[in-house]
Structures are given as C-alpha cells and as structure tokens.
Amino acid sequence: MAVAGGSGTRAWVEQVEKSLDKASVPSVAASRRSIYRVPACIKDGDPNRKVYKPRVVSLGPFHHGDPELAPMEEHKQRALRHLLRRANQRPRLLPELVASVEVVAEELESAYYPDLGDWWRGEEGRERFLEMMVVDGCFLLEVMRAAGLHERNTGGDYAPDDPVFSHHGVLYMVPYIRRDMLMLENQVPLLLLQKLVAVETAKPPKTHSKANLHDVRFRHGVLSIPSLTVDDSTEYMFANTMAFERLHVGAGNDVTAYVFFMGGIVKSAKDVAVLSSSGIIQNAAGSDEAAAKMFAIVSKDVVLEPESALEAVQREVNAYCDKPWNKWRANVIHNYFRSPTSVLNFLAAVVALVVIVVQTAYTIIAFYYN
After folding, report:
1. Is-above-0.70 flag for pTM?
2. pLDDT of 47-97, one tens digit each?
3. Taking phi first (over 0 means left), then psi (-120 to 50 degrees means alpha), and beta for anything else, what does residue 202 get?
4. Would you list the DSSP string of 147-194?
5. How far apart are CA 239 and CA 46, in angstroms?
6. Which residues contact 164 (CB under 8 A, 6 or more apart)?
7. Is 103 left (phi over 0), alpha (psi -120 to 50) or beta?
8. Nearest-angstrom CA–CA distance, 220 and 144
9. Pairing state of beta strands 217-219 and 222-224?
C-alpha cells in the first residue's frame, strides 16, 4: 500500500494498524468499572451542579483529601475504633478485615478504572488504598447501624453527645452524610461492604427486595404509582442515578424513565397536592411548590427511551384521555365534584331539575285528560 508523507506518517499508520486488534477487546478492568467521575457535559447541563459534589464526607478516592471534608476523618477513625471495640472477643478483627479486602483489592481498584490517580498506585499506593477502603467501609456500616438504632429508639455504645452517632447526631448530621452517600463520585464498591459485613458478623449479608419504580400500571382508567418520599435528598438521588445510567453500559434506563414520567405528571404545586392526597408522594420537601420545582429541575432535558415500559403506559394514558366520553366525564368530575360543597350544589341542581320535569309531566297529563 502506498502511503503519502514521510517516515513519521508511515510510523503512525503502522502504529494504528497494530492497535486495531487491541481496540476491539475491552480490558478486564474496564468491564469492572462501576464508579465514575461525572463529566463536564453532564454537570454543565445541570443548573444545580451542587448535587454532584459531597459537602460533609468523602467516600472512596475521588474526593479523599479534600480540605473541606477533612473534619469528618476524625469521626471515621472513631467509628472504626467503636466497631473493633465492640468485637472484644475477636482481638484480630482488624487484620481479618484488611485481609478480606486485600483479597479483592484489584477488583475494588477496577471499580474506579481509569480515574484512580497515581497516589493509589504501586505498593505504597495499594496500602493507602486498602486503609481508605477499610476506614470508609466501616464508617458506612457504623452510620447505618446508628440509623437503625435510632429508628428502634435503642441506645448504642457512643456517647450521648457524639456529634454523629448519638440520637442527636443521627437526627441532625446523618441526613447530610446520607445525602453525600448518594453521589456518584462519592462511592465505595458494594463488594467492599459485603466483605466487611461477612467478616464482622461471620456470615454473609442478607438481601432484601424493594419496590420497583417501574411498578406503574394503568388499568380501567386508574393510574397506580408506587409511593415516593420527597425530601431534600431526592434531587441528589435522581440526578446521580441518572448520571450513572448515562455512563454505565448495561445500567438500564429505569430511573431516567421514572423521572421523565413523573415530570410529565407534576407540573405545579396542585399536582403535588393531588398526588400527596392519594398517598403517591410523601412530601417532606417543605412545601408543594418545593416538590414541584424539584421535579421540574431533575426532569429538564430528560429523554425517554422508546422501548421503556413507562413509555407504553404513557401511550395508554394519552389514548384514554383523548376519548371524548372520558374527557366529558373528567370535566364533570373536575367542575362539580371537587369538594363536598360542589357535590351538594350538583345534587341540589339535579333534584331541582327532577322536580321541574315531574311538575311539567303532571301539567301535560292533566291538560291531556281535561
């Protein structure tokens, strides 16, 4: 093959041809990747970029060492000490935890591929990585344990004035930690928590089933939607999960489809009030206006996949609403049955109409016989 240009160009052509076979085979590390940095193309299109940056605690390597998050490191170390102290019959629990994590260190590193910085590479970097994984993982386990004790109104082994793990801390500090736990860049692999729990409890963690956001049904004119609690962390959850679905091949489109669907339903505070009265939305966002604004922000520029199950539900709803009889019935219900007063007025009008018809009928019959 004749190639124009000098030897530099020919070397580039040979280099590209040699790399063709490699380009078609994804690396093992790339296939294990599950935790991403949110790219600028997503952040720049989001009017509320704060939803991607942790404010209280760093989890994993991406925000480790951030001076603004440094104060929480002291609480992480205290959480680790309490976890180890609680297992006083197992003096070598910490070495066991480290050993269990070290076995899967390569898989844990691959979860951040290729964004894991040089600080975490090499022999010394691997030691730093293992320490961070154990400390951050145990901190998360202690946060979840403290939250569970708070729900059961049971005291733990922390001081009553502990700023994080006491009842007061769970009530006022843990919500901020939980919000940071929702951020895509601020994650630890699930495998890490599974390994830590298996060592700490000497048995594998239990699995639990949750309600699916796609459990949306439309039958006989009734739209059934699973209940959703809306609070100050809901926007963070939706934004970061949708970012994950965009970046991770095979993650699906479930949350994005749900946000698109709800964005089409919730257009105003009145819509939130209707959904709240039906038990679909548990509104802890402060007001119906705040919840409506949240849905408007997260659903902006969201596109629904044509193959989505919710797209079929949306078609069914639109077809039902386009039928003249359904439009007329909905209009009557909206205008005459919105409140008890409207219902009474409507019934009074019907009774009056019936009385007039009966009187007219008697008059006609009397006139006919006369």
Report:
1. yes
2. 667 899 999 999 999 999 999 999 999 999 999 999 999 887 777 899 999
3. left
4. HHHHHTT---SS-TT-TTTSHHHHHHTHHHHHHHHT-TTS---HHHHH
5. 9
6. 75, 79, 143, 146, 170, 173, 174, 177
7. alpha
8. 42
9. antiparallel
